Amino acid sequence: REAYISLGCYIETMSVAFGAYGYDTQVNYTDLTVNVTYQKRENATVDTAKLSLIDKRHTDKSAFSNSKIKQETASALLDKYSALSVYQNGDENFAYIKRISMDAVTVQSANQAYRDELAEWMRFSDKEAENKLDGVEGDIQNALWYSSIAANSHNTQMWNVKLYSNENRLQISIDESRVLNVVDSEKREAYISLGCYIETMSVAFGAYGYDTQVNCHDMTVNVTYQKRDNTTVDTAKLSLIDKRHTDKSAFSNSKIKQETINSLLNKYSDLSVYQNGDENFDYVKRISMDAVTVQSANQAYRDELAEWMRFSDKEAASKLDGITADMIGLKGIVKTFYYWTTTRESAKRDKFAQQGIDTAKK
User: Fold this and answer.
1) Region of residue 322 (phi > 0: left; psi between -120 and 50: alpha; otherwise: beta)
2) Enclosing H/E stretch for 169
3) Of 120, 179, 204, 348, which one has the greatest count of Cβ atoms within 10 A?
4) How far apart (Å, rounded) are the C-alpha atoms in residues 118 and 61?
5) Do residues 304 and 181 lie in contact, with contact meaning Cβ atoms separated by under 8 Å?
């Protein structure tokens, strides 16, 4: 019963949302399936007021006010909805509904099967609320979440992951729909990004006490995992993954301390270090700026970049991918001004391209 009521709420909300974007909808029921057709109206504009109402609707089980609904409000509702009945606190009908509702809640809450089912659908942290995968152990879910914030081009997250939990196996491949076809037509950066994802995944699984084995076959990677005995969560490793982020703000001109360089060279034998002012540093800087300048002059590159840019915190939170203001080094009032003044169209123009070049020079 509640499932079909919920389905009805979804279809009604869909109709309102499509209407707000200028589409007429037609709903048709066939047996247990619903077909919704939609058609764009001419000269339609977005009805932001309706979208705002949808956005504000939420479940709130905190205590209701004991104040009565104003009579003019009740009258307005009754005039609009002929089938509506209004029972106010203190009315006989209100008291009856309150009593039988409490009886139902009391009986239901005494049922252990109900409690068990409810507990499975409850979320006990903001992180769990954002990342719940049905039927998957919590440690695996958390490890996959940490894997997802691996370094990757334009934050397109161009990986396709299939989880076979009964086999303790993950299958990973390139998601072609998220590949940067202009700037990365040969998928070089895509496979580097995939490598970053797999390496981050291995570290994240290790932090949760799992040993991983990576096997590459053609264009697909299989990762198997096995829980170690008597392990605890390595929060230090998880913290390092969480802190890694893209930041295109200006670098410091200070040289890296020699003891830091020595430590890195001792740990990574194939590492090269070029300091600001070195001949090799100047060469790398020059050819990098040449590449950025040529690339920024390409309109197809600009168009592709603009599609992956995010122009508000809301868009960033909704899509959970792409390049945000924080990633390009903007903070505080500068970030706010950027979101106010920059659009997807303006990001495709010469002025924005020049700003990118100027940022790279820093």
Assistant:
1) left
2) strand 169-174
3) 204
4) 15
5) yes
